Each structure stands twice: as structure tokens, then as C-alpha cells.
Amino acid sequence: MPIRLAKLPMPSWTIRLAACLLLLAAPASGALADNNLSPASAPPPIAIEHVTVLPMTANGAVLRDATVVIDGGRITALQGPVPRGAKRIDGRGKWLIPGLADMHVHLPSDGLMRPPRFPTEAPNLFFDTQDIMTPYIANGVTQVMNLDAVAASVGQRNAIARGSVLGPHIALAAVINGGTGRGRIANTPADGRQAVRDSRGEGYDFIKVYSDLDTETFLAIVDEAGKVGMKVVGHIPEAFEGKLDSAFVPGFALIAHAEELSKHSENFTDADAARFARLAKQNGTWVTPTLVVMRWIASETRSLDEMKASPDLRYVHPLLQSKWIAANRYNKNSSPKLIAYFDRMVEFHQRLVRALKAEGVPMVAGSDALTSGVVGGFSLHEELELLVGAGLTSEEALASATRLPAEWLGVAGDRGTVEVGRRADLLLLDADPLADIANTRRIAGVFLGGRYLTRTRLKAMMADLAKRNTAAKHLFDWNALRAK
Ligand SMILES: [Zn+2]
């Protein structure tokens, strides 16, 4: 994002040079690029008339019969007047809410389908960035956090920021793990600190800690991240077994799954749920429950029938569809014991959400999209419904996908609420999501940085994606391709 340049400690000539490069790279339309630096003309202002607004500010009341004006990609008024030349949208009988955020996603990135034959071999499997992003925007998801960001993820984020792809804002978290696997591995505190500084230097926004870190390295990573101004999100490493308290240190800012806590409970008692909630509260650690991923894991462990029958599956790249079905590790390792275990997890996570709510621990909605069965975009709506099912009010669930993610990400001044000055990342709904959270699915249109995408346009993009995915299915047999 061009705006971030100003925050970096660079000599002024570097800023000027970078700004020039950005101007050269600006798209012809300029519609999605940040208008501060784009030389292209902005789209005409938009007025949404007679609409009911859910601002989703901390104390903001519902605004009825509002006239919301969007100009230059931002909200410029909530009660008109309608500027001359504005495109008018009839908002009667409709609800306007902030665009939704999914705070735990994985996004496919280009790769090789077999070991490289020579060191500079380029990927032979390419994903179309627009195809990855279309289900998100069609579902009104205008912000995601990629919890497994790699170099290619930076390219995806930039393609959207530049305006050449329609997609959500992407926050990038770089994974650091212990053990001997691939990626950024750190098994000593010194290596952990270096991995944090490398991630900072490479342009990632956050650090994701993973399960195989030893306790000392984990603590060093969180400490170093604090020093370089990065928040830490992620798993609670296995090494904290029996000493969970010591994982809660300042800077460990977000737990990526309810499971990170529930796996430290032997009997899934309410007392354990309350204890976990107190630990999070005392440390200021937020939680992404990701109820939906555990629900899907439990379903797939039992049988693949529900996933195979899901109408959302056709929006997933055919290679991943094949992987989810032909190489589903939950289903392959199924046993009555495992099924019972996951069922208990699903049930306990609902009680854990209630305990977190009772303790006042902020929760942000996340789905762990790209895990088998969890289809990005759609899965955020499933998560919201599960959060309400677990005991959040519709308003609390909505806050977990709008204002609260923006606060955690540090972008609350820019987006996440419907207020004058905020970026026009908005959803126009056919029905009131406070009356029924499932109404977040009834999307009449999506505003992406002030660009209006109608239901008709979004439906056409989705139909085209499904058609191409289905036509290419025979080319992507996961097991056959991996065997080559
Ligand atoms: Zn994940």
C-alpha cells in the first residue's frame, strides 16, 4: 500500500523514487489504487439513498433512512447531500454494513508439482490470482489475513493494491516454526530473533508462530517481534504442554484456533474453558475461534459425503478439490475414537467461546480457509453462524468480522466501520443481519474501495469461475500428479 511508504525510515530520495515507480505501475483505470498517488481520474461519486446503516462503531446506533455518499474511494457523508453527477443507488429496504474480514486464511500460491530438475526451475502450476480472490469478494470479504504468507503472497497483495485484481486487502503473516521442516525454521532463541528480523525486512506484517517451536525460541520470537513492532499470531507450541501459562507473554497477540487452548484440556471441563479465558484476558491476547474448520474436520473424519455435496466446492481450484477428496488425511485416519474426539472438540469450542465472551476476551472471525472443506469467502459466513450458535449475539459476531479485525490489524482509522473518512469497503444487504446473522449472505452488492460491484456482476464472475473449474477437473488428479 503506497501510504505505508511514509512510515518507513527511508531517506527522502528513496521515498520519491518509490513514489515514481508506483505512479508508473498505476493501472489505466486507477479505480482501486489509492487515489493519493494515482494519476488516473477517480470514478464518479456514489450516493446510496434511504438505506439503513449499521456503522459497527463501538457505540454507534443504527442509522435509518441514511444517504451515504462515497467519493474518491471513501465515505464522505452519511446524510447526504447527494453531490452533482453522483451515481444513485436505491437503498430502500436494504442494510449497509462494513466489508467483512476473515482473520485466518490460507491462499494457494504458485508451485511445482514435482521436485525441481534444476535450481532455477519456475513453477509449473500457476494459480490465477483473480480466481483465488473472486469467492472472497463475491461473499463480501474485503479483508483477509494470510497466516502462511510466502514471497508469492506479497505479489498477490500487491496485484490487488495496484488495482489489477479485484480482491480483499491482505495482511501477511510469516510463519516461523521449529523442527526440521521446510520454511523459516528456528530452534534457538538467536535463530528465532533473526527469523523475525528477516521477516520484517522481507515486508511481512505479522509473525505467525507454529507448533514445533521450543519454549525458549517461542519466547525470544515474541520478544524480538515486539522490538521491531510486529504483533505475533498463531499456535501455542506443543512444548508448552503442562505449562500453558508461560506461553502468555506480552506481544502474543492472537491465538489462531480455539484448538490451541482445547488441546490443553484433558476432560473439556467448563473450569478449563474459564481458565483459558482468564489467561487470554490477563495477557491481552485475542482469539480467532475458527469453529468452522473443526466442524469440517469432524464431518470429513466421519465421511466425505457432506463435502462432496457442497455447492461451494466448484469455486475451489480443481487440484485442491481433488486433494481434499483423494488425499483427505482426516478421512484416511478415521476411527471411532477420532470421530468422538473431534465431536467433543466441536462441542467444547462452543463452551470456550461462551467463556471467552464472559471474560471479555475480544474474538475475531476466522475460518482457516483452504483446509479441506473450508471454502474461502463462504466459510466466513459459516463461521459467523457458528459464533452465534455458540452464544454471541449477531452484533457481536458482526463486530468480530468488521471493527475488531480492523483494530487488531491496526487499520481502524482506515476501514472496518461505516464512518465519514473510512474507506468505502462496504456490503449492501437485502435483509437485516442483526435479525438473523445468516442475512450476511444476502448480498445485493459489494463496494471495494468505492468501486461498486453489483450482485449481477459478482454472480457472473462466480459462474464463470465454476464453469472453468469444472471443465478443467479431468486435468487435476492430485494423486496421479504427485506420483509423476
Ligand atoms: Zn491455518
Layout of secondary structure:
Layout (H helix, E strand, L loop, with lengths): L11 H14 L20 E8 L9 E9 L2 E4 L9 E4 L4 E4 L1 E6 L23 H10 L2 E6 L4 H12 L6 E8 L12 H14 L3 E4 L5 H13 L4 E3 L17 E4 L3 H4 L7 H14 L2 E2 L3 H12 L2 H4 L9 H9 L2 H4 L3 H24 L18 H13 L3 H6 L3 H7 L16 E4 L13 E6 L2 E4 H17 L6 H6 L1
Parallel strand pairs: 1-4, 1-5, 6-7, 7-8, 8-9, 9-10, 10-11, 11-12
Antiparallel strand pairs: 1-2, 2-3, 5-13, 13-14, 14-15
Bound molecules: zinc ion (ZN).
- Briefly note the structural class of the backbone: alpha/beta
Number of strands: 15
CATH fold-level label of the domain at 100-409: TIM Barrel
Distance between the termini: 40 Å
**Can you identify the CATH superfamily of the domain at 100-409?**
Metal-dependent hydrolases
Q: How would the global form be characterised?
A: globular
Strand content: 15-25%
Share in helix: 25-40%
The average pLDDT score comes to 91
Q: Which small compounds were modeled alongside the protein?
A: zinc ion
Major sheet attributes? 8 strands, mixed
Report the top-level CATH class of the domain at 100-409.
Answer: Alpha Beta
Summed up, the helix count is: 17
Low-confidence runs of at least 5 consecutive residues = 1-40
User: For the CA atoms, what is the radius of gyration?
Assistant: 22 Å
* CATH architecture identity of the domain at 100-409: Alpha-Beta Barrel
Characterise the protein shown here.
Helices cover 38% and strands 16% of the residues. With 484 residues, it is α/β, with parallel strands linked by helices. It has a domain at 100-409: TIM Barrel (Alpha-Beta Barrel), CATH 3.20.20. Strands 1, 2, 3, 4, 5, 13, 14 and 15 form an 8-stranded mixed beta sheet that branches. Strands 6-7-8-9-10-11-12 form a 7-stranded parallel beta sheet, sandwiched between helices. α3 (151-162) links the parallel β7 (141-146) and β8. α4 packs parallel to α5, α8 (291-302) packs antiparallel against α12 and α12 packs across α13 (378-390). The longest helix is centred in the C-terminal third of the chain and has 24 residues, at 336-359. The structure holds zinc ion. The site of zinc ion (ZN) has 4 residues, from loops.
